[in-house]
Amino acid sequence: MTRSVTASDLQKNFGRWNDVAQREPVQVVKHGRESSYLISADAYHELLSSYRRRTLVRDLDASELALLAQAEIAPEDRYEIAKSDDGQPDISR
Q1: DSSP string, 14-79
Q2: Using CA of residue 35, residue 38, residue 39, residue 45, what is the dihedral sign?
Q3: Residues near 93 by Cβ (< 8 Å), separated by ≥ 6?
Q4: Rounded Cα gap, residues 68 and 56, in angstroms
Q5: Pairing of strands 26-30, 3-6
Q6: Contact, 24 vs 1, CB < 8 A?
Q7: Does residue 59 belong to any structural domain of this protein?
Q8: Is 32 left (phi over 0), alpha (psi -120 to 50) or beta?
Q9: Number of domains in the chain
Q10: 10 is in which domain, residue-wise?
Q11: Average pLDDT, consecutive stretches of 10 residues, N- to C-terminus, the chain (93 residues)
Q12: Closest by alpha carbon to 28, among 46, 3, 54?
């Protein structure tokens, strides 16, 4: 569950909200809108380790390209790119 706090209350009572963030994310609201989240260092590192970085094909070396060429796509994950009625690409599974 996520707790919510105004930015001004977070500033006034940072120690309290920092303690809460060790157990669960704290949503920070500024001017009535979601602004940011305060999370524990453990939660941050877990998120960072699961983050997938984008790599452009042109940046891959020959061995990485060879691995991609050999890769098998599971039947349930295959898709085809067809043209829609207006000639634009239409991705369908």
Answers
A1: HHHHHHHHTTS-EEEEETTEEEEEE--HHHHHHHHHHPPPP--GGG--HHHHHHHHH----GGG--
A2: positive
A3: 78, 79
A4: 13
A5: parallel
A6: yes
A7: no
A8: left
A9: 1
A10: 3-49
A11: 94 98 97 97 93 85 91 85 72 57
A12: 3
Q: Is residue 72 part of a domain?
A: no
Q: Which pair of structure tokens corresponds to residue 74? A: 């599971």
Using DSSP, state whether 11 is helix, strand or coil.
helix
Predicted TM-score (pTM) of the model is: 0.57
The conformation of residue 7, written as its DSSP 8-state character, comes to H
| pLDDT for 57 | 87
Name residue, tokens 């707790």: 3
Q: Are 90 and 83 contacting, i.e. CB atoms less than 8 angstroms apart?
A: yes
Please give the helix or strand (H or E) that residue 9 lies within, else none: helix 7-12
The letter for the amino acid at 27 is Q
